């Protein structure tokens, strides 16, 4: 008799998946057969993400749950990961996508705007990584994908808080990669350039034109472009890639 080890059904938590890149990632992972836990920041958005979860389950035959949790709060981040673990029996993939901006030049940037961005983008990523890593180490399998930004690599005038948070995400990711690799848990960061979402809708026409002038591909990215990359890094096949920062920016940073 041959000894066949069955691959368990994989599950994923995608933070900030009510819209934009996170939503596209949740859809892409469900399409690839993952059970998915979608998330928004507060109870106010819960009916929207519950609708998304129901849609993913109906369209792709996967299990899907919706959880409202502010990732900046350690207890809520733990509850988010725990809910997915309880519903699916395991947490194989964590995509730390939740993020905010509070732009302004440093001379005028308020302390609370600096703190808010660090709290959600960096501490929120830490909180969820901590909750998931414990479970992934136990099951000796995991894929962590953290959303950084090209701004975290190169900096950007008017985004000192955001750039610091996204650079922090890179340091966090590389450290986790070193800590977790021996347990078959990878951690990578993706660094998008300009992707057409609510976050970039705020740009003026002049800013948009200036940005397009710097992008070799001459277009903003789509959330689906990022989702395809995340899906690959979240796959079993990507098991020998860890601690990397993958830019996805249409050639902007060339
Ligand atoms: P978006 O359209 O503004 O969506 C942000 C998502 O994050 C929403 O689902 C939002 O949920 C959620 N969120 C915000 N604060 C949260 C919190 N405290 N706890 C849980 N969820 C929270 O953003 P996006 O453009 O898709 O960006 C997604 C990620 O990619 C971010 O990390 C961003 O920094 C990064 N990124 C984006 C671009 C770009 O060009 N768009 C470029 C580089 C990197 P609610 O609906 O509850 O607010």
Automatic annotation (TrEMBL):
Gene Ontology molecular functions: 3-oxoacyl-[acyl-carrier-protein] reductase (NADPH) activity; NAD binding
GO biological process, one term: fatty acid biosynthetic process
Record carries keyword NADP: yes
Pathway membership: Lipid metabolism; fatty acid biosynthesis
Boundaries of every Ketoreductase domain copy: 10-193
Catalytic activity: a (3R)-hydroxyacyl-[ACP] + NADP(+) = a 3-oxoacyl-[ACP] + NADPH + H(+)
EC number(s) recorded for this UniProt protein: 1.1.1.100
Top enzyme class: oxidoreductase
Catalytic residues, chain numbering: 162
InterPro entries: 3oxo_ACP_reduc (IPR011284), KR_dom (IPR057326), NAD(P)-bd_dom_sf (IPR036291), Sc_DH/Rdtase_CS (IPR020904), SDR (IPR050259), SDR_fam (IPR002347)
Oligomeric form and interacting partners: Homotetramer.
Assigned protein family: Belongs to the short-chain dehydrogenases/reductases (SDR) family.
Function: Catalyzes the NADPH-dependent reduction of beta-ketoacyl-ACP substrates to beta-hydroxyacyl-ACP products, the first reductive step in the elongation cycle of fatty acid biosynthesis.
Protein's UniProt name: 3-oxoacyl-[acyl-carrier-protein] reductase
Species, as recorded: Gordonibacter pamelaeae
Taxonomic lineage of the native organism: Bacteria, Bacillati, Actinomycetota, Coriobacteriia, Eggerthellales
